[in-house]
Amino acid sequence: MAIGARFRGFPAEGMAFLRDLKQNNDREWFTPRKEIYENQVRGPMMELVSAVHAEMLRFAPAYVGEPKKCVYRVYRDTRFARDKTPYKTHIAASMWSNAIGKQGGAGFYFSVSPDEIDIGGGMYAPEPHTLLAVRQYIADNHKAFRKTIKGELWGESTARAPKGFDPEHPTIDLIRRKHYVLLSNPKPSIATTPKLLPEIVKTFESLTLFIEFLNRPLLRPAPQNRLE
Question: Which CATH class is domain 3-219?
């Protein structure tokens, strides 16, 4: 059975719902239509995550968990945001290392909306101690790390070398990164087709060595803090 045969794509009604939500992002509109969201958006997303997990057992079994815990909620955290609209107009999921825990290291991620699909993985805005451990590991193993990078790293870098690192280090461009993320953006039109599942699986499989490298220093005793 082909991979795509296990997930036929999001219903057109689901994408239409997200498109309408973008134009009517308030509780008065969403609340009486919540059942549509559950049936046409979240339900299919759970099926998609389960299908992705089934494939990940081949190449990243340590990142397979419960689909319900992987799918993000529709509600936005507006406490510190300028945008006070209450709902996300996309649906997303992430898969993390079971040995490290959610948000503790690098993982896989994808999101779907009528306008954009993001498929990628890595480490976004890690805690300072986590970032330090990863930077030190990259500094000591930079040739191996470069071989895992397939594409262009996404996100910002610091203006200068972080404290404790040699500005002339041969891989200072990687050490200065604030995030370690690789991201692809296939055509959003595949969201409602069987092409979506194999596209996610193909991308995830290509990112596995990159993600496992980032997590390696987090699976061993913490390195000595160079800032002390």
Answer: alpha beta
